[in-house]
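Morning run. Coffee first, then this:
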Amino acid sequence: MRKMNRLSLIAATLICLSLTSQAQPQMVKVEGGTFAMGNPGSKAPKGDVDERPVHNVNLKDFYIGKYEVTVKEYKEFINDKSKDYFINKRGTHQMPAPPDSTWLAEHPDTKKYYPLPTQKWWGWVDDYPMHHITWFDAVAFCNWLSDKYNLEKCYFENEDGGIECDLSKNGYRLPTEAEWEYAARGGQKSNNTVYAGSNNPIDVCWFDDTSKMKGPQKVGTKSANELGIYDMCGNVWEWCTDFYAKDFYSRSPKNNPVNETITSYRVLRGGSWHYHADYATLTSRDGPEPSFTNYNYGMRLAKSAN
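And here it is:
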């Protein structure tokens, strides 16, 4: 009887370990290499001046999320009341509120699909990308997830109150801007397309024409890029680790660049359901304040391949 109990205990432990492993985010390993980062502006879509000059970048191996972080994943973080991260910068630890009448009045193209209160907002659907999060929310989620799986946390608050990222740690983090673009391009398997996996945004992007301005869509429903990664262009803008600077490309290091020079802004990449396809290219950049967000700001995970 004792032997049977031990066997049952071992089996149960193995099942629990299997379930835990399966619950971890799906990540794609990206083999490092050299690529030309940026948009030369020689043909449409020419991009903005902050996408130039084109410069060669060398990257080492890393992992990146196969999908954008979903509402379901983020809800688990919010529902965990045992600990919190960067609360002094994030404010209340809760799911974002749905847009109110004031927000919709400021976004008339969206409002016509959601005449409050007669139609339910698309809201927090489990397999949709998490959205309306700040950069501070995103890095807090990364640290929480690292703790959950007993990994080293990448983000820490320095003595001046700023948040830094230690890329040598093995935990979850946001991709660097260079990692994001390299992965979106398809890494070593790149076909040199304009969008992540295609020259036709309809194939791979949820942008204003394909979303019909009705909000983000279920992750993974468009075609993947060359590495099997979904929604890198369109659906929701994705926060990156870097500080944003309009002129960073003119002074970017060649090897594993990340802009650590302090500015008031952080990088967003990829465009969204509420933007035109020209802002969903592989090279499009934006740089809002880290405390700012909107109903098309989301995130994708990364990990160093230590």
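Residues 27-304 form a domain with the paralog of FGE (formylglycine-generating enzyme) fold (CATH 3.90.1580.10). Good start to the day.
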